[in-house]
Amino acid sequence: AIKKDAVPPRLIAKINEYFDYTWADSQGISYEEIASNLSTCLNADLLAARYSEAIQNSLLFRDQNNKINYPFAISFVTTLEYRIYMDGDFIVIGGSSSKNTYIMMEGE
């Protein structure tokens, strides 16, 4: 357990904000729990629905004719790890390198 007096109040507030957001986002049911009981095809359909806005709006998923390459998009989204970052969190610091690809669903 974390001793309350050992953690700055601002950090406690940020942690509470994170859990409030994750609860509002999923009502306590993780995607992993749902996906573990689905077939591969149904899981791919669920991911396509979850990331449909990103698939529609990202040039990454478009071919040379500007049409969405759905087989590529589906194969890509099935490899994603869903993460939540809060205001003020650094995802990647300018000038540093990362082997990851990030798709922002909301925020800036």
TrEMBL record:
Domain of life of the source: Eukaryota
Domain Cyclic nucleotide-binding, first and last residues per copy: 76-108
Gene3D superfamilies in the cross-refs: Helix hairpin bin (1.10.287.630)
Protein name per the record: Cyclic nucleotide-binding domain-containing protein
Native organism taxonomy: Eukaryota, Sar, Alveolata, Ciliophora, Intramacronucleata
